[in-house]
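Researcher: I'd like a structural prediction for the single chain below. Treat it as a standalone chain; there are no partners to consider.
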Amino acid sequence: MTDSTQPRIIEAAGALVWQGEPTDPRIALVHRDRYNDWTFPKGKRELDEHPMIAAVREVHEEAGARIALGAPLPGRDYSEGAARKHVDYWAGRYLDGDFTANEEVDEVRWLTIEQTRQLMTYPADHAVLDAFALQPRDTIPLVLVRHAKAKSREDWTEDDHLRPLTARGGTQAERFAHVLSSVYEPLSVVSSPWLRCMQTVSPYAGLVNQSLAELDVLGESEFEQDPTTGIEAARQLIDAARGRGQGLILCSHGNVMPALLLQALQGFADKNQKEPLGKGEFFVVHLSIATGQVVGLERHRP
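Model: Treating it as a single chain, here is the predicted structure.
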């Protein structure tokens, strides 16, 4: 039963969009004629819309920009009439696109960090800008995904390496592909060779035209037998991704994910990592290309 005494929550998403050199970025502020304000592009999520997709969509609709999401930024909570509004924010690197005045926005300005600070209308937006100013912006996403829902072990009488996804798992894999392809530039993909892992990431690999590499030591039993080799292989893959400046997806099993996450985080602590991943869930670790520093950690359902 819904508690009618609690205010309705409006979920929204947006991005601090930037372009130029990471050390001297230019930031997009949008002007909304209806409110006569200067703020970051954002808007309400559609029904069942993933928040990252909502952020990318709203930026394109309001500012005409196609972006690749970077690390998360502080969200905002405020009143909107009788409701409460929560906005998730990310850094968003400008890829391309041109602004055309629309129903929501009549002007976009590209400004330095200090110019942005002076022009923005809402004092609460300063926390978003301050976090962006402090964090490295030369980042890549490292996506660690646990395979989607598979048929039960009890009902499967054949080789466990060949146990496939259920229909629900297939839906999770398709949604994962849609989300990741919508918010990042194409990522390289490495998976445990067990069928349920391959089926989890193959829709993404096909959608973005990336090869799907198999790595035996990420297999369920192979990792249990030799975790040291598996961890070292993951470290080499992460270092290679940073060297290329291209994000990476690693797909494996529930028993492997904690070790992969610890390797990726290198001492970075976050409350999101405490509970084990559910089937089809994924972490996104944002790594500085230059230093390997962990800039942010996210946890998402597909």
